[in-house]
Amino acid sequence: MTSEERRVIFASSLGTVFEWYDFYLYGSLAASIAKAFFSGVNPAAGFIFTLLAFAAGFAVRPFGALLFGRLGDLVGRKYTFLVTILIMGSSTFIVGLLPTYAQIGIAAPVILIALRLLQGLALGGEYGGAATYVAEHAPHNKRGLWTSWIQTTATLGLFLSLVVILACRSWIPADGFDSWGWRVPFLLSIVLLAISVWIRLKLAESPLFIKMSQEGTLSKAPLTESFAHWGNAKIVLLALFGLTAGQAVVWYTGQFYALFFLTQTLKVDGQAANLMIAASLAIGTPFFIVFGSLSDRIGRKPIIMAGCLLAVVTYFPIFKAITHYANPALEAAGISSPVVVTADPKECSFQFNPVGTATFTASCDIAKAALVKGGIPYSNEAAPAGTIAQIKVGNTVVPSYDGTAPGAAQKAPVFAKSISEALSSAGYPAKADPNRINYVMVTLLLLVLVIYVTLVYAPIAAMLVELFPTRIRYTSMSLPYHIGNGWFGGFLPATAFAIVAATGNIYDGLWYPIIVAAATFIIGVLFIRETKDVDIT
Do 342 and 410 fall within a single domain? Predict the structure, then answer.
């Protein structure tokens, strides 16, 4: 490998590390952001809105893929992903300066969501450019290895964000971090942006793009060629449902949902959870290179399909084991003193409100919201119509209340105190006991989830590049990748959180990634062809 080739991989990978660092700060600091920008609603709703604002950035990623994918096929790979990183970095820096809800009211979350949308658009154009650029420089028999370095960047970006956050939490007092210290990692992104732009300016254009430009064979309508012609559009659909959808849910379950599960459901201290996630990422990240290189020898398809199948088969036992080792008191209390919500099913809402306009005041919704906020598993039992909901904790019964009835405001603190005392008496912990957490076992289980991520993600860039012709490659591969990762993956935390709130089973959120991964496995096995021997020129 020449020095120029090493620079291509390093610059593309390093720039993407910074992009993912920017993007993941929001997810890692969701609790602090909820307090700063969504303080006008109750904490449970605020956390859901924060997740949805996070998801808003993912929602627009396919549109960024169309916009920047088209530019990449028209004007070049290098200059397109220079633009994307400028947009991404600038938006992230501004988040660090944005006034809170308490300072400017509703304008604060509106501006925040607008910045998330800009970041999502930029990231929609980033990945396709980096993957295409590296693959078009790579030797025929090393595309999996070369592009796998890009695949490490998402995990390394998350790892870097966690390290910076942990450093800030260590140096800044807890009250200071919640009020202003969470902004520091966002503000530091301006330094990362400057370094990334400087490195990328030194790169030359892709040799295959230069060749097409000289020969006059560039596509004049990449969107039409990619999606209006059935021959290529069919491959786009297969790439989405037979590759990227399953890859996305395995990725986000293994890294983001695992963190949310630890902190929000099991009530593990945020710093301890971040340290265990960071440790599993540090150990597991080299496997991206291992499986990327292996895909050059045995193929991309079997490795990706293996990751999806393993996730389908093992997610439930893995997350139950995480509960056992991270919060054994919660597990024991759930067995000895099960919680049951008895309510009229007709008054129980599905508490998923993406625009923040609905209020959940029925006694059933109030009861369930209180339990979900505490990370308490429960089962549901139907009651006659018109019955006020009640929570049964072991042998103790706590009645809920109608949030629209006179005196509801006075009943709220009484209800909260009663349910807290009942749960405490039954052995339900307010948070995970640090002295009872088996840090080694939890980290090993998280590592298994990261290994699944490396299986599905390491070969995906090379395979997507190899599925499409050079003249429309940037556009064609970007859309299925970002619909898969932006929509199927990006909405996973909010969707899983809402499912758990509805059913009461803390593991039911896993049905979403399991069903999607299973569908991808079936479609991929039956309809996706192997691509490792394709000549991309």
Answer: yes
Q: Tokens at residue 381, please? A: 């039992």
Q: Considering only 23-27, 60-64, 132-136, 527-531, which range has the smallest mean pLDDT?
A: 23-27
Q: How far apart are CA 431 and CA 262, in angstroms?
A: 11
- Whether residue 336 sits in one domain with residue 246: no
Q: Which of 372, 396, 425 is the last residue of a domain?
A: 425
In the listed set 396, 425, 454, which residue is the last one of a domain according to the structure?
425
Torsion of CA 260, 265, 271, 276, to 10 degrees: -70
- Can you tell me whether residue 381 is helix, strand or coil? strand
Can you tell me which residue has the tokens 């929000």?
Answer: 264
* Residue 42 burial by Cβ neighbours in a 10 Å radius (0-12, 13-18, 19+): middle
Instruction: Summarize pLDDT for 64-93 with one digit per residue, the tens.
Output: 888 888 888 888 888 887 888 888 888 889
State the pTM of this model: 0.85
Q: Are residues 421 and 445 in the same domain?
A: no
Whether residue 212 contacts residue 220, with contact meaning beta carbons closer than 8 Å, is answered with no
DSSP state of 362: S
Phi, psi at residue 97, to the nearest 5°?
A: -105, -5
CA gap 418, 13 in Å, rounded:
53
Residue 521 and residue 474 share a domain: yes
Give DSSP secondary structure letters for 260-323: HIIIIIS---HHHHHHHHHHHHHHHTHHHHHHHHHHHHH-SHHHHHHHHHHHHHHHHHHHHHHH
Q: In what order do the strands lie in the sheet with 396-399?
A: 379-382, 339-343, 390-393, 396-399
Instruction: Check if the beta carbon of residue 169 is closer than 8 Å to that of residue 8.
Output: no
For 75, the domain range is 3-326+434-527
Q: 109-146 burial, b for 16+ CB within 10 Å, e for fewer?
A: bebbbebbbbbbbbbbbbbbbbbbbbbbbbeeebbbbb
Q: Can you tell me the distance from the alpha carbon of 499 to that of 299, in angstroms, rounded to the nearest whole number?
A: 36
Tell me, what amino acid is at 122? A
Indicate whether 532 belongs to any domain.
Answer: no
Looking at the fold, whether 283 and 398 belong to one and the same domain comes out as no
Same domain (yes/no): 206, 87: yes
Q: Given this model, what pLDDT does residue 332 score? A: 92
Q: How many whole angstroms separate alpha carbon 471 and alpha carbon 132?
A: 11
